[in-house]
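Honest question from a wet-lab person: if I give you the sequences of every part of a complex, can you actually get the arrangement of the whole thing, not just the pieces? Trying it with mine:
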Amino acid sequence: MNSHSEPESPLPPDELFVDSALLEKARLDGEKNDEVLIRSILLKTVEQPFRHETLHLSPAADRKSWFTTVAFAAAAVALLLTVLTNLSVRDTRQEEEVVFLVQYADDSATTPAADKNSKAAVKSTRPVEETVEIGTPDFVVSPSIVALDLDWELTTIFGQSVRDFAPRTMRRATFRIEADNAIEQAREKIYSGNVIVYYEGFRVEAEQLRVAKVSHSGVSQDSNTVTGSNVILRQDHPERLVKAEKIEFRPLSGSLVLSRVREFSGENETGLEVNGESQIVLTADSISLDSEL
Amino acid sequence: MHLVRISDISDIPAEQSPNLDPKKDEDFAELVHLNHRELLIYARALCRDHSTACDIVQDSFVVAHEKVRTFDVTRDFATWMRGIVRNKYREWVRKNMRYELTDGQLAQIDADIAAWQQKRSESDSSVLEALSRCLDRLPDNLKEAVHACYFEGRTGEEAAEVLSIAPAAVRKRLQRARSMLKQCLDRKLTTPSEEQ
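Yes, you can. This is the full assembly:
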């Protein structure tokens, strides 16, 4: 949906208010709530998993177990919650919004002792003999999420020692998908026929688009969450055009990766040479070139 | 047009949800449910983008939750939240080097949202429900323009083609529609919600 005023030349304030209310009303038509947003807010506030301790460590053993948990957290636990929201079906054309909540541990925030480059000298080591008591992780079941195929969300809760060095960050990635046809399968939904995807200022036309459905434990960071074939990507600011055989969404970075590129043009990249073995990695405000080999 | 300085409305005493204490988790969750919609409209009016508005509202609630111990329960939670949203919006403007609304424009939008938050607390009548009723009363030609551009997501040019009028006429109709809707919403603020 388009906003009807340019940010640089806003409407009068009273029209801004009505314009905003109209846009929200249009977005919410057919939906009665903002479950995804509310869920996300609650997860970051009153339902923060790290607010509860379920790993019980005896004090003497805390340091040893700390290394175990550091290794676990540094692996950048990525939990993906996918919510497919059916917006409307006009005539026979499918129009849907796919929202990914990308929740991950920020390994850059680990404490210095977990840093590989730590220069701290080791004076001596000796085995720790105390018993390490590890409780059963709790599972939070959230049946209130409105989702096409998602009945509940699984969240693993870590203990106190994890809390200090692995704060979790959550980011939202919203795809708006229009297509003539959509087929649901066990693990994915496949769109075909004049597929158009809107994401972060990009407009992507694709022959086919596949969107992975979430499993009960989320989707790993390596999963192909959104992939498309034979695509034409357009970006207005800055102006870019990419034609490629494949496009893929990388949830952790929020980037789009185009491979087997057939054609590329960009107003800021006139000297950039792209061949069939190049991969173009795009975010709303950056571009980089990788080789598939 | 009524302009209200932000400093004037920030001193409104707590009248909304007097039984909810944001320091309690269950009450905070209820306040998220109660207030997120108007805050989303507010944030969107400021930044002009839905995703950014969602981020601003979410970040604002996170800040509110972190600082909830400092919240004076005799004050108004919605007013406190609008202040946080406003600060988050200004952060976003600075980070992204965007056009910033003037204090007067901010105050006008703030006053509109504040009035509807107050109305909802008194009569459970939300701005979107009132907007629905106001939309029904628009003349057909304006209603068509609103429907094409807002509800069908067409650009001005596309709407012009569908409506068989010039793009400039679409813009004019939208402008008139927004103006009439604002007048209608202002009237509904001063009338009991049962009056349709």
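Two things worth pointing out. Chain A touches chain B at residues 1-5, 7-8, 10-11, 13-29, 34, 37-38, 40-42, 44-46, 172, 174, 200 (CB under 8 Å). Chain A is about 15% helix and 40% strand.
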